[in-house]
Amino acid sequence: MGANRAVERYSDFTPLVLPDRTWPDGRISSSPRWLSTDLRDGNQSLANPMSPARKLRMFELLVDIGYKEIEIGFPVASQDDHDFVRLLIEEDRIPDDVWISALVPARDELIERTIRSLSGAPRATLHLYNATAPLFRRVVFGMDRAQCKDLAVRGTELVKKYAEKELRGGNFRFQYSPELFNETEADFSLEVCEAVMDVWEPSSDRPIILNFPTTVERSLPSVFADQIEWLDRNLSRREHVCLSIHPHNDRGTGVASAELALLAGAQRIEGCLFGNGERAGNVCLVTLGMNMFSHGVDPGVDFSDIDRIRDTVEWCNEIPVHPRHPYGGELVYTSFSGSHQDAIKKGFDDLERGAAEDGVSVDERPWLMPYLPVDPKDVGRTYEAIVRITTQSGKSGVAYVMSAWYGMRLPKELQKDFAAVVQSNAELLGSELSPERVRELFEKEYVSSDGPVGEPYVAGGRVAATLHLDGAGEHDARTIGAKLAPWGIDVRTVHRAAEADPAGGAEAVVYADCRVGGRTVWGVGVDASAVGAALSAVGVALRRGGREAAAVVAPHL
Ligand SMILES: CC(=O)SCCNC(=O)CCNC(=O)[C@H](O)C(C)(C)COP(=O)(O)OP(=O)(O)OC[C@H]1O[C@@H](n2cnc3c(N)ncnc32)[C@H](O)[C@@H]1OP(=O)(O)O
Ligand SMILES: CC(C)C(=O)C(=O)O
C-alpha cells in the first residue's frame, strides 16, 4: 500500500445522537473538583518512574498549590509505589482536607493488597477500573458484555468486602471508571455503571465517583460532551454520583473535551500538571485552571508562581515543559514581532493612563491587553521579558525594551531613528539582540561622544534644537535655554511625563533633536543635572550631524 493510501485504513467515529443537547448554551461559572493524577497516570507514563524523593516533592507541590484530591499511585505496581503510600500515611503527611486515592484493576488479590496498603489513611478513595470498549472486550479480555459487566460488579463487591474489613472507621470513598468510556456503547457504559451502583448502593453519606475517561482520544470534544450530557440525564441516583471525567490528549483536544464536558454536566476533572501522562498526555490541569482564571472564575488552585510549579514538575518528571505550553511555557508571555509589540506597548500605556485617571494602581484596573490573555504578574512573571528584539521587531518593541529595562522613554521620532539602528544590527547578527545589547547600541549611537563635549559653538547660522526633558523642571528648562542661546542654538523644550527614576538612577535624561544642515539628528544626555544632560545631548547631536554639522558648528565639537 502506498503512503497516500494509508488513510483508507482509518474510519470515522460514530457519534451518539443527541439532537436536543443543551450544553452549547452553558457557561463555566465555578470551578469543578480537581484530581491530580500526576503520581499515577503521570508517573506510569515516564521512562523513569519517579523516585521516592521526586514523588514526595510532587505530592508536596500539589498540596501546596491547593489540590484536595490526589491519586498517589498504583500501590501494587511496585515496592516503591507501595512504600510511598505507606510513607504518606505513617509519617502523617496528608493534610486534613486532602483525599488520597489509589488505582487498582478489578482483580481479587490486587484489590485486597491495594486496600491493605491504604490502611490507616485518614481519607482514601479506592479507584477501580476495567475496560468496557468492544475492542478491549474482544482483543484484551476475550469477554462478552455480560462477562465484562460481571468483572466490574465482582470488583466492586471485593472493594466493599475488603474496605469494610481494612478501613473500618476511616473515611473511605469509592470510584469506578469504565476504561475506554468514549469508545464504549453508551447504553453499555450506563448498564455497567448502574450495576456497580447496585452493589455500592450510593447514598448521601456513601456517594460514588463515576469517572468517564477518554482513555484514547478518538473524536471531537463535542462528541464527548454529548456523551456526558447523555449520562447526566440517564444515570440513576444522580444526586449521589459525582460525575467525573478523565480526558487524554491524543488529538490535542484534551482541554476542549474537558471544558465542553463541564458544560455538559461533569463535576470533577482528573488530569496532570502541564499535561504529563500516557502518550500525548492527560488533560493539562494548569491550562484548565488558568483558562478559568482568565475568565474571572477562581479555579481554587494557586498558579501565582507558575515558574516554581513548572520547575518542580520538570524535576519530578524529568521531561521539559515546552516553551510554548499555555500559561507556563517560557515564551508564552513574550512577543518578538513588531505589530504585537506595538499593540502591547500601547496597551500598557492605556493601562497606566486609566490607573492614573482613576487614582488606583495598575493591578486594580481590568486586564484588557492586546495579545496577552492574562497579566504575567498574576503568574509571577515580570514585564521585562514580554518583548524581545529580533529582525521582526519594530520601533515600539525597541522603545518598550528601553523603557521596561532602563526607564528611558524615548520620544517617538527617536524610537524610529533608533529602530533603524537596531534593525540593521539584528540583520547583521542574524539572531536576537539582548536588552544589554540594545542598550549598548543606544549608548554608542546617541549617548557617548568621541571626544570631550565642550560648549556648542555655531560658526554660522543657527541650529534649532528640541529638548525632551525627563526628570527636569521648568527652572531647568529656562536655565538650559539661556545657556545655549548665546551659542546659536534655539531651544524649545518639551517635558516628558514625570518619571520616578529616569534611566535607572540618573537625575535627568535629555533627548535632543537638532536640525542640522536640513536634517534631524538626535543626541541623548544622561546626567546628575538637567543642564549637564542637555549640554551632553546637544553636543552629541551636533557631532552626529557630521559634515553638515561641521559647516555650522565649531570644529572642537
Ligand atoms: C488506562 C490506564 O492508565 S489503566 C492503568 C494502567 N497502569 C498500569 O498498568 C501501571 C501498573 N501496572 C502494573 O504494575 C501491572 O500491570 C499489574 C501489577 C497491575 C499487573 O501485572 P501482571 O498481572 O503481571 O501483568 P499484566 O499487567 O500484563 O496483566 C494483565 C492481565 O490483567 C488483565 N487486566 C487488565 N486490566 C484489568 C482490569 N482493569 N481489571 C481486571 N483485569 C485486568 C488483563 O486482561 C490481563 O489478563 P490475562 O493475564 O488473563 O490476559
Ligand atoms: C483508569 C482510567 C481512569 C484511566 O487512566 C484511563 O482510562 O485513561
Automatic annotation (TrEMBL):
Residues 32-307 form the Pyruvate carboxyltransferase domain. One of its GO terms (molecular function) is 2-isopropylmalate synthase activity. Keywords: Acyltransferase, Amino-acid biosynthesis, Branched-chain amino acid biosynthesis, Cytoplasm, Leucine biosynthesis, Magnesium, Metal-binding, Transferase. The keyword Amino-acid biosynthesis applies. Its main location: cytoplasm. Catalyzes the condensation of the acetyl group of acetyl-CoA with 3-methyl-2-oxobutanoate (2-ketoisovalerate) to form 3-carboxy-3-hydroxy-4-methylpentanoate (2-isopropylmalate). This is 2-isopropylmalate synthase. It comes from Streptosporangium vulgare. The lineage of its organism: Bacteria, Bacillati, Actinomycetota, Actinomycetes, Streptosporangiales.
